[in-house]
Amino acid sequence: MTAKRKIEVFSAGCPACDEVVALVQGLACPSCAVDVLDMRNIEVAKRAKALGVRSVPAVAINGKLAGCCAGRGVDEATLRAAGLGQP
Q1: Phi and psi for 33 in degrees, rounded to 5?
Q2: Distance between CA atoms of residues 51 and 71, nearest Å
Q3: What phi-psi label fits residue 53: left (phi over 0), alpha (psi between -120 and 50 degrees) or beta?
Q4: Could you tell me which residue ranges the Thioredoxin-like fold domain spans (predicted)?
Q5: Per-residue pLDDT tens for 37-78?
Q6: Which of 2, 20, 52, 54 is the most buried (most CB within 10 A)?
Q7: What pLDDT score does 31 carry?
Q8: What is the CA radius of gyration of the chain?
């Protein structure tokens, strides 16, 4: 018997998140166990932070943040480089 692949979709329930949930569910195979996790739940948010989630939607596969979801999110240096905080 093949072990199930654990797929976690971190979502805030927004339309962009819903699109990713639908995509993941559409791509999932019989050996994929897809869990949609609500970031408004503090335990889910802690799990997401531990995985390195910086923005939603995000997908983790077998406990590892998918490459397409890594390194995203707001960071101060990028905002300042874009002009935020400058007269």
Answers
A1: -110, 105
A2: 11
A3: beta
A4: 6-66
A5: 999 999 999 999 999 999 999 999 999 999 988 888 777 888
A6: 20
A7: 93
A8: 15
Instruction: Name the DSSP letter for residue 43.
Output: H
Mean pLDDT of the chain: 92
- For the chain, strand residue ranges (E) read 5-11, 32-38, 58-61, 64-65
Query: Which tokens sit at 10?
Result: 């971190």
Residue 14 and residue 65 in contact, taking contact as beta carbons nearer than 8 Å: no
Domains in the chain: ranges and CATH: 5-81 (3.40.30.10)
Q: State yes or no: pLDDT of 1 exceeds 70.
A: no
In single-letter form, the type of residue at position 50 comes to A
Question: Amino acid identity, residue 85?
Answer: G
